[in-house]
Design goal:
Layout (H helix, E strand, L loop, with lengths): L1 H6 L9 E7 L4 H4 L5 H30 L4 E7 L2 H12 L3 E6 L4 H7 L2 H8 L3 E6 L2 E3 L4 E3 L1
Parallel strand pairs: 1-2, 3-4
Antiparallel strand pairs: 5-6
Helix pairs in contact: 4-6
Amino acid sequence: MAITHVLEQCWPSGTEFRVLSVVEPIYLQYATEGGYMAPVIEAQHQFLEQTKSLVRSKLKELKKTLGENNVQGHVVEGVAAACILDAANDWKADLIVLGSHGRRGFQKFFLGSVAEKVARYAPCSVEIVKRKLVDLGGESAVA
């Protein structure tokens, strides 16, 4: 979603792009009841590897359009908002382009909003790309 948005924009020559994907940890204190720790650790590892594969795929797409030397990618484990903010500070980012799941109401309250936290505390401008809603004859669905 955010990568597609970046590819649709015109950028000044020499602009550098960094893709960051954050894999949040599965909190083991919730997984140890009933002895499910090993499968949870394996699931976390598999998700991390799938995320790395996805980022590599997206990097190829970006490099083809934006230039081989202008794009870097990173996958990290941690709390999403904190990792994004730390990376933006470390990289001295001028702009963060961030996808949003578009959660609302109780779900947003319960889960928090990474986009909201990043927008509030970022050291630079933040562009939030929302998923498009599709009208299904009176009902909406995320596309």
